[in-house]
Amino acid sequence: MNVGFVGLGTMGGAMAANLARAGFAVRAWNRTAGRAAELADLGVTLARTAAAAASDADVVITIVSDTPDVEAVLFGPEGVADGARPGTIVVDMSTISPSATREFAARLSERGIRLLDAPVSGGSEGAKKGTLSIFVGGDPSALEEARPVLAAMGTTITHLGPVGSGQAAKAINQVILAGTYLGVAEGIVLGLKAGLDVEALVAALSGSAAQSWVLANRSGRMLANDYPLGFKVSLHRKDLGIALQLARETGASLPVAALAETIESGLIARGHGDDDMSALARAIRSLSALDG
Question: Could you tell me if 192 and 241 are in contact, meaning their C-beta atoms sit under 8 angstroms apart?
Fold first, then answer.
């Protein structure tokens, strides 16, 4: 099966590598030239345009930063829609607006191209290990055709309904993460202020009902007040914007997500947009007078 791949950032580069290791013929393109050049050692062909990457593909993966970026790589000059054949399945693994996803699907359908929205969770670690969780919206038969490709990148593939459903599920994922990161950050800060051995505290909490992936994998960063890149604050703030728009459209109230968005906006304004999102603890530490 031939796979076109558009977007070789922190997530996309690792995902394309896993496809090549799984034996797929991958032709890739990235908007910034020179990104992920090491993919050539795995047999990935680097295309000159998105259209060229899609030209002989059975499945085209797109994973870029935001809704306008997806529209550009799909429908811009020499975009995917210009190169893909009728019958091609485009799998957009970006995190974007559910309503825009439905619009893009309709536009592609006019050309005989099928769209699945399949955003992912699991961060850069999951992208490298091929253990991502993938939320899928779209036609079930298209999913079954594309499933072998998705299985090379993730271990949990869940069909959630028609086009746009995957994006709605990812928005919910990001809402839950916002609360979890804030809760762990507040717990770490309270432990520090109370004078506890917080490393011992984390070990104890890991065997309690408070256990979570964030506690296990990000509490150390919060304790050290050091936030190397994992999943950028700026990207999570963008995702929360999508979730809060969906909440407005559906009449849901999301007070914790709104608080997290406000805190993240403050971090971005202070130059921390490229920090891992565990940097939410930076704000809680500052409010608690732990840092100068």
Answer: no
C-alpha to C-alpha distance for 204 and 283, rounded to whole angstroms: 25
238 is catalytic: no
Residue 268's φ and ψ, nearest 5 degrees, are -65, -40
Q: Sign of dihedral through CA atoms 56, 59, 64, 69?
A: positive
Give the span between the Cα atoms of 180 and 20, in whole angstroms: 34
Q: How confident is the model at residue 292 (pLDDT cuts 50, 70, 90)?
A: low
Tens-place pLDDT, residues 255-269: 999 999 999 999 999
Q: What pLDDT score does 230 carry?
A: 81
- Among candidate residues 129, 170, 193, 238, the one labeled active-site is 170
Q: How far apart are CA 200 and CA 21, in angstroms?
A: 40
- Give the pLDDT score at 253: 98
